[in-house]
Amino acid sequence: MTPMFKKILSATDTKVKSGRLVIPTKGARAYLPELEDKQRCILLEILDTKGNIWKLSYRFWENNRGRIYVLGGLKAYITIWKWQVGDQVTFYRIEPENKYLIVTEKELPVSEKKLPASSS
């Protein structure tokens, strides 16, 4: 398995209503299929850690700073995995099958986070 990119979820990413994840531009350009202007959207099959296959739309739109890459069709996934701000998703490529895997890691509650040692 090859790690491709990770993202800490923002408030926009966790909205079930929109059902989409904004992908880091560098990660999209380096690891996901190239999207041509004419094409604008393709379907990607992505596995999760429970073995479910998700058919997600991979697309972009342009703004004044360039392309914004997104994965759409995530409403059910966001609900099942209970995405919250601060959670992290990591994408991997499974070789040699050339498949994709998404892993969701929940943010640790403040009470479980390691605090820096005091220097008294």
Index terms:
120 residues; mainly beta; 7-stranded mixed β-sheet; 2 helices
Strand tally: 7
Mean pLDDT: 89
Q: What string gives the helices and strands in order?
A: EEHEEEHEE
% residues in beta strands: 35-45%
In short:
This protein is mainly beta and 120 residues long. The protein contains 2 helices and 7 strands.
Describe what you observe in this structure.
This protein has a seven-stranded mixed beta sheet with strand order 1-6-7-3-4-5-2. It is mainly beta and 120 residues long. It is 12% helix and 42% strand. The protein has helices at 25-31, 75-81, and strands spanning 2-8, 20-23, 41-48, 53-63, 66-72, 88-94, 99-105. 15% of the residues are buried. The mean pLDDT is 89.
Q: How do the helices and strands line up, and which of them pair or pack?
A:
Elements: E1 2-8, E2 20-23, H1 25-31, E3 41-48, E4 53-63, E5 66-72, H2 75-81, E6 88-94, E7 99-105
Parallel strand pairs: 3-7
Antiparallel strand pairs: 1-6, 2-5, 3-4, 4-5, 6-7
